[in-house]
Write a structure and sequence with these properties.
By secondary structure, the protein is α+β, with helices and mostly antiparallel strands. Helix content is 50%, strand content 18%. Helix 1 runs antiparallel to helix 2 (84-105). The longest helix has 44 residues, at 3-46.
Length: 131
């Protein structure tokens, strides 16, 4: 085998290794994003019935984990209609997925997310930003 053929073979092999590594990284990023979307949708569906009879039934969940610290959002739900443990488990799952996303993608949105308080008003749990 001549030196030129050997060099072409070596370059081709190196290119294939690089390209195959990029494909697997993209696939895992897409899978992580899809899993995060699915978890967020599941949480939103779980907490959609916010009816209440008293403010003690209204709870606030810190959901997500921003790269610069703090939650991505706050979710208000009613313990009258939502399994509290299941909601907390979904929130923890979303926190872990967002932390993994932050490690993979680096620093993203760092706009402040103001904490909220939940109150039962007109028989519905509602959120109010604390300033």
């Amino acid at each position: 085998m001549s030196r030129l053929s050997y060099f072409k073979c070596l370059v081709t092999t190196a290119c294939l290794m690089i390209v195959s590594g990029c494909v697997s990284t993209t696939d895992s990023a897409t899978t992580g994003s899809a899993s995060l979307d699915k978890s967020n949708s599941a949480l939103d569906e779980l907490v959609q019935d916010t009816s209440c009879t008293a403010s003690f039934q209204c709870k606030v969940l810190e959901v997500g984990q921003r790269a610069c610290g703090g939650p991505s959002r706050y979710v208000v739900y009613s313990t009258l209609n939502t399994e509290q443990e299941k909601a907390e488990q979904l929130a923890q799952q979303i926190n872990a997925l967002e932390a993994e996303n932050n490690k993979r993608n680096g620093l993203t949105d760092c706009l402040p997310v103001l904490p909220v308080q939940a109150l039962c008003i007109s028989q519905t749990c509602q959120s109010f930003e604390l300033k």
